[in-house]
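We now fix the convention by which a protein and its fold are recorded. The integers have meaning only within a learned vocabulary of local backbone shapes. A complete example follows; check for yourself that the lines match position by position.
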Amino acid sequence: MRCAGYNNVDLKVAKELGITVTTVPAYSPEAVAEFAVGMLLTIVRKYHKAFNRVREGNFLLDGLMGFNLEGKTIGIIGTGKIGLCTGRILAHGFRANVIGYDVYPNEKAAKENGITYVPLDELFRTSDIISLHCPLTTETKYIVNEEVLKTTKPGIVIVNTSRGALINTADLIQGLKSGHIGAVGMDVYERESHYFFRDSSNKIIQDDQLSRLVSFHNVFISGHQAFLTREALSAIARTTVENLRMVENGRSVQIQFRLELRGVRVHSHTPNISWPNIAYSPTTPSDMSNFQRSLSNPLLATATDRSRAPSSLGIRSHSPSPTPSDGFPMSTVVVVGVCAMDVKARSKPMREIITRLVERGRGCIEVKLFGEQVILGEDVENWPRCDILISFFSTDFPLFKAVQYVKLRNPVCINDLHAQALLWDRRVVNKILEHFGIPMPRRLVASRDGGAKLDPELLALVESHTGLKLQLEEPMADVQMREDGEAIIVNGQVMEKPFVEKPVNGEDHNVYIYFKGGHGRRLFRKVGNKSSELDPTLSAPRMDGSYIYEEFIDVDNAEDIKVYTVGPTYTHAETRKSPVVDGVVRRNTEGKEIRFITHLSDEERTWASKICEAFGQRVCGFDVLRCDNGARSMVIDVNGWSFVKGNETYYDKAAEILADVCFKYSIKPGRAPGASDILDDGPSWTLKANVTVFRHADRTPKQKLKFNFPVSEPWTKPFVDLLNGEREEIILRESTQLRKISEAVEQARELGASGDDLTKLTQLNNALFSKIDLPGTKAQLKPGFTKGRVSGPRKLEKLQLVFKWGGEFTHAARYQSRDLGESMKKDITIMNKDVLGNVKIFTSSERRVTASAEIFAAALLDNSTAPSGSATSSSLSTATGTPSTITTTLTPTKSSHASDSGSIASVKVPTYQLIIRKDLLDDSNAAKDLMDDVKKRLKFLLRPGESERRPELTWPKGMRKEPVEVVREVIEILTKFREVMRRNFETMEVEKIQQRWCCGDEPWLFRERWEKLFEDFCNVKQEKFDPSRVSELYDTLKYCALHHRTFLFAIFDESGGSGGELGASKNRTLHELYGRAKALFDLVAPQEYGIEPAEKEEIGVLTSLPLLRNVVHDLEEARNTGECSLTLYFTKESHIHTLVNLVLQSGLPIANPRIPELDYASHITFELYERMGGRGGRTDKEYSIRLALSEGAHSSNVLDSALDARHSLNVKQRRKLTQHLPYNLVIEKLSKHFHRVPNDEELLLADPNAESIVVPLVGVAEV
């Protein structure tokens, strides 16, 4: 080995097998020691800051003051060669007072190098600076932690060039935030393998702790380079070669290993990750029951119960037990079952944890997702067997059915299933919290239902584990308000306002707060960007059910705390803005509420452990309020299974702990045969095929000008000539081609164009001149011929020229496409990895669509490179009657298809094709006339009372105004904005408002885009307003809010301010405009593809019938051939909308017929499932199909979403469109449209036998 450590080598096994293991333990101690001293000088004298300042011409000395090393006490932990060398430099070179600690002290060497040994606690207590130079062992892990830091001097400086995990990063961050730590230098980091030695400059760092460390001004981090000198590398090479020569010649190798490692022993701060201890093997049903309860709830038993339990049960409180990562192989495969509703089981947090869990298992952990089809439709005898069960309640989950499964199969439960029913009643939750001494707000209980309802078995379980005998019966409450209305009286007890009113039902989140003075606030489950609303009339409490009344707590910083647990010893806590403040939810790019990691007190961590005990829920969440400047805190609610969202550290830790559980289960003495050794009694459903249709990812706003030419006029001949005899639409992209249009304009003038025609031609020429060099600029020439089947060639009847610019693939689209590809890869790997062995990808010829498909494919197939997004189609595309197919070859990397052993010699590496299908996925003109007619009738939607007469229309219930009134308000706001924008462009230095512009934009393009909107809205009478313009307004608002938010707020700031966040907080007019534009868009946009059901079907048939035929064909082929497959189609907005409309009009039982906005990267999925054998002893196969829909990269309010440099909203998880339905039913319903083939030559049907032309993959670049 060419390194110093051997963390991943099992030395005992190597010795047994006769394998000689060598390393290079000492190659150049001076290299690391000198780097450590240099890093120390950098952080105390601020060299790095001075360097950056001077490069910018800033020679000020403010903030650069440091201190001398002479006379300072510097502690060296670990006095091996590097530690001794570091001490010598500091003691002899800087005349510092150097003290040291080592478990194997070398007094003579220390004295020679100027180091004085002291006890470890004295070193921490007296040092001004601490430098770490010890190896990472069980004893030294987190040697620097919260408790140790409390003993150090204020302003302590820490340097670590040894191993990252010597320092508890979370505690380090807390010390930096509090100001106790003066400065930190780190050449190592405990999770550095994700980032060190690779370039992440063009990526977002997902590790929250590393990102936080980098943000501190007094933290200096380098990428593990302390060893990197010429002398060190030469020494490594020499030693490695010498070791090999000695082994080859049979000589004794100089560098030998001792299994006893040198290190520093620290006893009280080793993290406990041993939950749960399962070294006990039950031999009787009674033992099994006790084992099951102890495993899912090991700290729950009372003292009496614990005295009866085997001594091996419970939580180890000292050194951690070995895990698979320590090199101890599992004795057999452990099967982890996930029994939860699909929306939870296939969510991103679950996927991330499961993926990491399987990786940690190294082939010894198998994960089975039960799936809703099994959970809801099968008897528990037919559910898959598993060794360890992850199962939890959510909406529609049959909890007590799952309890019966646990009784039948006796798996190890991560969360006690039966005990989850305790969380359904807040009265029960409060009694259990009270029993365990966990503080809560003062409360009064008003029961009108006789008390909570729990089955006797659960009551007995609670009593046996906790000693609490729950008294559930409660008399009818006497509730009244005091005469002055400022207090409530429950059963004679008084509670003054403000107080909180909670339903006893734990699933009811309609919580009311009553304030003094006769007003209140209604809290509810987050809807869009709202979590509560003020109600000036809310004064009297509800009298229609049972409620708990709690004193209102005035919390610190207007924040709540959400605590997440994974076992009793690991907690993760986050703060969020309290919903009581204003009810506005701030969201991140994933659409999740913005939260900040916080540090729990020792007492709060104790509560977390007790809550795990009390409710038997290893993975759970609970809410904490802090008040009195942190002096007092209390628990206000307990939830079931809860995930931290978007935190890589949490995913890593959760997977580590779960893998530890699997490992302990695998080595349990006398363990009965596991689930992997037993055939399931009932055949289970397996994902057989996935067919998904995607809309392309994020783009710039599209803008266009339309010109209709009367072909009977002589002056139009130059434009007809541009068709060059083509009888279908042609597209001109290249600047040389676009200049031909300008030449045609000049020829038309010479041929007599005049009046309005000449004005339009001048407008076209001006647009060409200013936009010809912009990305995405193109012109479409659309000929129209006489219709019907007539003898002879059809005659040219009309010619339309559409000049377009914008609509280009953005940098945000790259991230959306990549993340979506990675997400689908993880999801399908969990469901059935064989599906990834047969992938077909089809795409439109549009550049933004092709780019989306290429980047998605690279992520899905683990390509080492990611596409640049350039299109493969030619710049002059001709839509011909014969569908052309262009194939781009993508080959997956070895890692995607390598066997578990790592060998790929026998693995057939498939080739995947990216196929451009214009006939299927490009725009179709077949429904143009019908859609134009629909657009003319959109004005009817704005008539008073129309939204009430048509319940199928989407209009916000909270919007108390008619659509026509909202249109008037939008016009008023835009009229005001036009005046403000024009004034600010004249008076402000617009070039300085926003330093960086993305997507090829500039201030003048921003202005032009908005001037066009002002013209469409403000320069027309309201009765002549075109509702289809609403889509352009909404699209532009979203785009500017994501990519140019600073400029957007500044340029529409009446005071001419600086915009940005300040402008956003001062001026809510933009938010008002966005809310109204969104409401109008949701009303109008879905109707552009048909107002009446028959119209929706007709337009759907004309636009997307070929695509639907292909989808059905793909499903039928997968069923008939028996091959797993993944078929993907990438297209544009029109095809997504019309395809979804065809599905809705097919007669399938739709779970939720109200379709959300189909934003960028929205997609509809058809999943085919197969079950071998079927029910009742049948030997034939059964098939079912499930449809799901994602609204794509969407946020309910983009203006309130926090953004990073990617400007990218994450793609929303798919939601079920249907339940699992019989295969024949779905095929029959979808095929009902197939007989409706219009008798029109212009409608091109897909040709499955179209010729394919294979071309090389176009150039790719990193995302």
Q: What stands out?
A: Residues 586 and 1200 are 5 Å apart (CA to CA). The domain at 421-640 is CATH 3.30.470.20 (D-amino Acid Aminotransferase; Chain A, domain 1). The first strand starts at residue 73 and ends at 77.
